[in-house]
Description:
alpha+beta, elongated
Amino acid sequence: MNEAHFNRNLTVEDALRIEQLLKPQEKIWSSEGVVTIAMLFVIGMILGKVLGSSVIAIGITSMLGIVVVVMIPKALDKSSTRAKRKYYTDNLKDQEGALTPEKIIVITEEVTSELKWSIFNRLEVVEELAFVAKGREYLGFAPYMFQSPEDWERCKNLIIEKKKSQPHG
């Protein structure tokens, strides 16, 4: 038997971890970042002329820079995480299913889906988490979703095997 049966849902925390892994890597120097730094420099120059002191202007500009570059994105990310957590919890449907060498079967109260491995463009096993994804849509798996450690091992092995057999894997 080369199937791995699951009968629980992924936790919100694990779903958020997968979403983080699926996020495209951000460039260190984006065009928006360069424009922001240039604008802060211009603001500092203007403040230096108005206040007559470049030291005060540099201090004010530095504080503005910290707020713009560090604090605002962190606040937005925290708000986004809360919204994702609420959305995930509100839309969670009990599911069960199996991973087989041919497909992944997901059964909910309303529908049974049979997904061929070939539709997924990303297959990963990371620590105690495994997932298959097409773009930003994914199915995630963790050990607690499976009835036995053997099923969890079969799940990981199937995903690793299918990743190796992908043309771009």
